[in-house]
Automatic annotation (TrEMBL):
InterPro entries: Heat_shock_Hsp33 (IPR000397), Heat_shock_Hsp33_C (IPR016154), Heat_shock_Hsp33_N (IPR016153)
Gene3D superfamilies listed in its UniProt record: Hsp33 domain, HSP33 redox switch-like
Annotated family: Belongs to the HSP33 family.
Keywords linked to the UniProt accession: Chaperone, Cytoplasm, Disulfide bond, Redox-active center, Zinc
Function: Redox regulated molecular chaperone. Protects both thermally unfolding and oxidatively damaged proteins from irreversible aggregation. Plays an important role in the bacterial defense system toward oxidative stress.
Post-translational modification note: Under oxidizing conditions two disulfide bonds are formed involving the reactive cysteines. Under reducing conditions zinc is bound to the reactive cysteines and the protein is inactive.
Name of the featured protein: 33 kDa chaperonin
Gene: hslO
Disulfide bonds, paired cysteine numbers: 238-240, 270-273
Any Pfam family: HSP33
Subcellular location: Cytoplasm
Length: 291
């Protein structure tokens, strides 16, 4: 059962906005579905949390797709989040395992590698806006901050983290975004930087230790003034269905479908949630008629 939340608010007398996500259950659900290694879990968990943060400013049926196309052993990471707080994603090579950094942390940057970050926003009017920037580190938070500044001219600070235990389960995951608003002074920006510098633990550790969102937010804000404007539930949700995947089979054409009929069955697997769908001969013949 997923009980994650996303909160939106202002701080420093309205001179900056913030978004906080606790995504522990969401990332654990993704790990369980894909059977991922710890470093793959950390990479996908960070990107999914980032997708939830960026999607929080969207409306209705709008969504954002984040693609990390790096030359590391993960061979690419994809996450899709929408305005309803739903997110899904996958890594191309979920079993990748790498040595820890000297600090004892998972080496997400090495697993992702060098390459590009692509951000696509699908709007209600059907338009899709896509921006691509070179990755800064592959650690994901820095890459998203670089994208927001380069492509959208929005200075930001972002924390993303996933804490994976030795038994591979996710103990804590979360994300925190702060963006100064037009009225922000140099003192406001210095206060934000100073508070972030005082944090003694990563956001994943804080998410693991906090009993609720109020406690987590208090740890992150310290003595800074803040106001909560909105609270939302978030979670791992996939849009796949057997009917939707049957449309993919239709697109193969009659010859390919006939080969599947001769095999007397077909199986399709959703990249995003790893759900398996079986098609029997009768269903395949119906699909052949539609092709």
């Amino acid at each position: 059962m997923q009980h994650d939340e996303l909160w939106i608010g202002t701080m420093l007398e309205g001179n900056a906005r913030w978004v906080l996500v606790k995504s522990t259950d969401t990332v654990e659900e993704a790990r369980r579905r894909h059977g991922m290694s710890p470093v793959a879990t950390a990479a996908l968990g960070r990107l999914m949390t980032g997708a939830l943060i960026l999607a929080s400013s969207l409306k209705g049926e709008e969504s954002v797709t984040l693609r990390l196309l790096g030359d590391g052993p993960l061979e690419g990471v994809v996450a899709v989040g929408n305005a309803q707080g739903e997110v899904r994603g996958y890594v191309r090579e979920p079993l990748v395992d790498l040595p820890l950094k000297a600090s004892g942390k998972l080496d997400v940057g090495a697993a992702v590698g060098c390459g590009e970050l692509t951000v696509s926003r699908s709007l209600q009017n059907g338009e899709v806006y896509t921006g691509t920037v070179p990755m800064v580190s592959g650690e994901i938070a820095e890459d998203l901050v670089h994208y927001l500044l380069s492509s959208e001219q929005i200075p930001s600070a972002m924390l993303l983290g996933v804490l994976v235990e030795k038994d591979y389960h996710v103990a804590g995951a979360g994300g925190f975004l702060i963006q100064p608003l037009p009225g922000a002074t140099e003192e406001d920006i210095q206060a934000i930087e100073s508070q972030l510098g005082l944090l003694g633990a990563g956001i994943s550790e804080m998410a693991a230790q906090s009993e609720n969102m109020d406690e987590l937010l208090g740890l992150l804000m310290g003595k800074l003034s803040y106001h909560v404007l909105e609270r939302r539930s978030v979670g791992f949700t996939c849009t796949c269905s057997k009917e939707r995947l049957s449309g993919t089979l239709v697109s193969l054409g009659k010859k390919e479908i006939a080969d599947l009929i001769s095999d007397e069955k077909a199986e399709m697997v959703c990249h995003f949630c790893n759900e398996h769908f079986q098609f029997n001969v009768e269903e395949l013949r119906e699909i052949w008629e539609r092709a």
